[in-house]
Amino acid sequence: MGKTAEHPQQQAHASDGAGLHVHLRTVHPSVPIPYLTREEITSTAQAATARLPLTPPAKDVVFYGGLGALTVAGALEWPIALAVGGATWLLRSGRKEKHDAGAQP
């Protein structure tokens, strides 16, 4: 009889995590959020874009973007896309140099 009386107590200990209690604490640090006005954002964007080189022609952006999209989609392997893009850039830059040299006396 003594064993049957102790058995329910053992089950009670097993159901409450076997005596293990874990205390967790969550820390929420205060992070200041800067307030930016439209003028500050505009002036910062203009200063940043003033340092960038001239934008490429839309034709080049579409060509290289399409080449990249085909590579990401898996229609082209990246070494082939790199070779096509590099060869196109070399041919176009060489053509521009010849055109600029022919225009000047």
Q: From N to C, what is the helix and strand string?
A: HHHH
pLDDT < 50 runs, ≥5 residues: none
Number of DSSP E strands: 0
Major β-sheet profile: none
Alpha-beta content class? mainly alpha
Radius of gyration: 34 Å
Global mean pLDDT: 80
**Count of runs of 4 or more consecutive helical residues:** 4
What's the shape?
flat
Strand content: under 5%
Distance between the termini: 117 Å
Helical residue percent? 55-70%
Brief digest:
With 105 residues, the chain is mainly alpha-helical. The protein contains four helices and no strands.
Features:
mainly alpha, 0% strand, 105 residues
Characterise the protein shown here.
There is one protein chain. The longest helix is centred in the last third of the chain and has 26 residues. With 105 residues, the chain is mainly α. Helices cover 66% and strands 0% of the residues. The termini are far apart. It contains 4 helices and no strands. The model has no long low-confidence stretch (mean pLDDT 80).
